[in-house]
Amino acid sequence: MMVLASEEQARDWIGDAFAPAVRQWGQLERFAAMLVEENDRQNLIAASTIPSLWVRHIADSAQLLCLDRASDGLWVDLGSGPGLPGLVIAILSERPLLLVESRKRRCDFLRAVTDTLDLRYVEVAEAPLERIETRPAATISARAFAPLDRLIALSTRFSTESTRWLLPKGRNAVKELALLPQPWQRMFHVEQSRTDATSRILVGEGRIGAEQRGKR
Ligand SMILES: C[S@@+](CC[C@H](N)C(=O)[O-])C[C@H]1O[C@@H](n2cnc3c(N)ncnc32)[C@H](O)[C@@H]1O
């Protein structure tokens, strides 16, 4: 797989992979601009990544859609921060999205973007994940949210037999996976990231039952 090496390549890849409508391109551009602007007020993304925003954040988020199965069910993004990957997925897929984020200022930003872009099918849940009412998720994503075992422990109640788990885990993906109990490990496979040769994405399938916890 070719790793995206420039902003131009990232935009070209998004165009080829998702054929966004003019409106969706406009929404992506506006979201990118709002992200950069808001980053002066609160620390949302590392300033060093702004020159490569489309590779590091937009395409990095969008690639998860290629790993999902075609579905129109609820997509839950955990620890969404400024909407990565959640808002990029929302713009490109137009699926119902639940963005879970505990910090008020980040949620204010998420609401400002969803209002500005008129993303009516996106819901912002401003609370710790532990306090969110359980809902069955077709897809669960989490980027830079929590260590894998904690992430699963906190979110397994949202999963069903057919839930797709999409977990970008950087260069420690394989190591983190190996630390899980065996029955959990078997539910995941590892995919190469399109945006970083050393990063991996854990892709899982199904419900991680409490009965499997602790079995190694
Ligand atoms: C490192 S940031 C990553 C944000 C975003 N996913 C990204 O990749 O840029 C982790 C986010 O998770 C949120 N968070 C941490 N623990 C949480 C919890 N228990 N419930 C909801 N959000 C949480 C933090 O407020 C923060 O915005």
Structural key phrases:
globular; binds S-adenosylmethionine; 7 strands; alpha/beta; Rossmann fold; single chain; 216 residues; seven-stranded mixed beta sheet; 8 helices
- Give the strand line-up of the largest sheet: 3-2-1-4-5-7-6
**Annotation field: number of helices:** 8
Number of strands: 7
Name the average pLDDT: 94
Query: Within the CATH hierarchy, at the fold level, what is the topology?
Result: Rossmann fold
For the termini, the CA-CA separation is: 33 Å
SSE string: HHHEHEHEEHEHHEE
Q: Examine the secondary-structure arrangement and name the CATH architecture.
A: 3-Layer(aba) Sandwich
Low-confidence stretches: none
Shape: globular
Overall SS class: alpha/beta
What is the share of helical residues?
25-40%
Number of individual domains: 1
Major β-sheet, in short?
7 strands, mixed
Kindly describe this structure.
- The longest helix is centred in the N-terminal third of the chain and has 17 residues, at 22-38.
- This protein has a single domain (7-209), classed as Rossmann fold (3-Layer(aba) Sandwich).
- Helix 1 (7-18) runs parallel beside helix 3 and helix 2 packs antiparallel against helix 4 (86-93).
- The chain is α/β, with parallel strands linked by helices.
- It is built from eight helices and seven strands, in the order αααβαβαββαβααββ.
- A seven-stranded mixed beta sheet has the order 3-2-1-4-5-7-6, with helices on both faces.
- The structure holds S-adenosylmethionine (SAM).
- S-adenosylmethionine is lined by residues 79-81, 84, 100-103, 106, 128-130, 143-145.
- This is Ribosomal RNA small subunit methyltransferase G.
